[in-house]
Amino acid sequence: MSRIPTPASIADTPQAAQPLLEAVQASLGSVPNLFRLVANSPETLEGMLCMNGALSKGSLNPATRERIALAIANYNGCSYCNSAHTYLAKNIAKLDEAEIVANRAGRSTDAKADAAVQFALKIAEGRGRVAEGDIAFVRLAGFSDAELVEIVGHVAYNVLTNYLNEAFGTEIDFPVVEAARAA
Description:
Layout: H1 18-28, H2 33-38, H3 42-56, H4 62-75, H5 79-91, H6 97-104, H7 111-125, H8 132-140, H9 145-168
């Protein structure tokens, strides 16, 4: 059970959050518990949705974004995000089970994506501090400076959602996948 109320429906959220959640409903076909819980603060919900929307327009493909989300969720021990992103990885990004398992471990079976996922995990582990060699490694794999910045953005976004779920115990509304480890 969540530590703060998760509104049961869009109508039960603050009025300022309702149009934001209606957009989530139109986009996803449902409103996951995370978004309804965050709707307790319409401003936080708006910021979260704006960041996610902006990052989705970037150069990183959806599969790599899901790979990063899985690595960060598992690193932070967030079972809600591990569950949600496993569902999205399988059903939207069409990643296979071997890839998803590798992603949770901070790796990828795809050589280029592997560099991005490893870099994302180094960012999380070092709290933003990475070595020149880490940047050179991901550049050598073919990532542009813009994509390097996007990787950091995706790490930050996923840390936000992980922390929200962990702080408030968001009830998992996806097929449950427990995080293998907490940082």
